Amino acid sequence: MDNTGVTLAGPFASLTLKNPVLTASGTFGYGLEFAPYGDLRKLGGIVVKGLSLKPREGNPMPRTAESACGLLNAVGLQNCGAEAFLRDILPALPADKVPVIANLYGTTPEEFAELAGMLSDEKGIAGIEVNISCPNVREGGQLFGQDPRLAAAVTAAVRARAGRLPLIVKLTPNVTDIAAVARACEDAGADIISCINTLSGTAVDLVTRKPRLSVTFGGLSGPAVKPVALRCVLQVARAVSIPVIGIGGIRCAEDVLEFILVGAHAVQVGSASFSCPDTVFRIVEELPAVAEKYGVADWESFRASLITD
Amino acid sequence: MNPTISRLKILDIVPFGSGPKHEFFALRLTPPKWESCAPGQFVMLRPLPARSEAVCPRPFSICKLTGGHLIVFFQVCGRVTAEMAALQAGDTVQVTGPLGNSLPVRADRPTLILAGGIGIAPFVEYVDKHPRPATLTVEFAHRHPLACYPFEGIAEKCAARSHMETVEQDRDAIVALMEQRIREFAPAGLVLACGPTPFLRLVGNTAAACGAEAHLCLETRMACGIGACQGCVVKALLPAADDAPPVLRSGPAAPPDDGAFVRTCACGPTFRADQVIF
Q1: Residue A33: which of B57, B227, B261 has the nearest Cβ?
Q2: Residue A2, number of CB atoms within 10 A of its CB
Q3: Secondary-structure class of domain B111-219 per CATH
Q4: Percent of chain A with pLDDT over 90
Q5: Domain ranges in chain A?
Q6: Which of A100, A120, A133, A188 would staple A152 via disulfide (CB 3.0–4.6 Å)?
């Protein structure tokens, strides 16, 4: 396969990538941490760590706990804040050679909108990904992403301020009907859907009889969640007409193809970057040959070609 | 030295201590891509192919880099270290390193090394590479028999004593000794410590009380070891810039009043004792 490029064309804006492999927010730092292990410019895109309006301190330790084939985390979105990111970090990223996508975290639709407004004119930003797996402080902590109405409200608020930037809405799998949330986001002005965020979980210690995470609950990622992610991408891709980015347990080029087979336009590699820091670079390199091995001539004809009775 | 990922073969895996149930091992590996490191740095290591259900590699101090060979010393304390203990010569491990900062080396100052248990590991390399080992004094506190630890190589090169804790009362004596030694090295000397958190807290508090300059090499859980996961933070009085990616670290900045969470892997693992809030 000679050309692995792909365009994710949304109703308001498009994202064009040289290959369909991006990094997942929260697993790739601000990008620079991985510069010693590969050429950032070769990636399909970099989704940076979630940014909030003000710097966030995050949760106390312990913040991570491993489970079978999975990793629970409760970092609590520790980050330097959008302003410091734009001032200190973005200029150091090769944003003219690789799309840099800002992942946003807010607690009200207005906060999300303000963040989008800060970013919409930034030359180095290629897109916005909205993390709606966060509590709405005004509605008793209900997650935006767990209610189609709230998800749509955030999407619409960001859409209004996002300007030229493609708007990606990242869905949580911790819902009964993920397709309904995806449709609500599409109707409210999302260009692209990405899924899945982590699965809610916990781990406990029999000796201390305490939770193994300081805040009891965390998000599960890693190979353990891949079947859930594939199911969600399949359901969402069938429910909406905008492009979908698949996320969840991707470790190799074959995994990338599986997500495209069920309907994804692109993917994000997450905690596999913890297993080995060059994982995402290796996947990008191996993808053309692996695609050829499975008879994939181009993404268009292969995407969503899953055969079901 | 920029960190790199190496896939290394195991030359041998040597159990330490006697008895049928070994908990301590020295893993000797083929030369990594890097030829030098600074004492106190660490590696992230995992067996290949990944056999266990573990997603993350594990952090280990560099115990020794000699003749190109990398030696990692470890204690079995969970699934991955148990899996590592079952590895054999010829097996492959993934090693990312060298990572983190280093322990300060000051040949012009008498240096007290306080090690607790497996915290002895980084000091093997430290003593080995120190330009004037005669200026070093080592006090080593441990719970397992001395033969379980790589103490012999240290004792050959500098003044080193070991103290085994078998009953509760032993701990009081060890604590008293540590406190006395730290006072002896204040203010001109340098105090370095590595071990469990309560041990490091004691060293930090004592050093603060008597005005000794102490540096603590922390051990903590890490998911990535390279600054991405934010899973290894410690509360520290460091300027925010010190926790930025290396290319951005510049200029003095005021540390926060009540401390901030900084990454042990990126800002440490060695911190000045008066900057850590336990």
Answers
A1: B227
A2: 8
A3: alpha beta
A4: 94
A5: 6-60+69-200+219-302
A6: A188
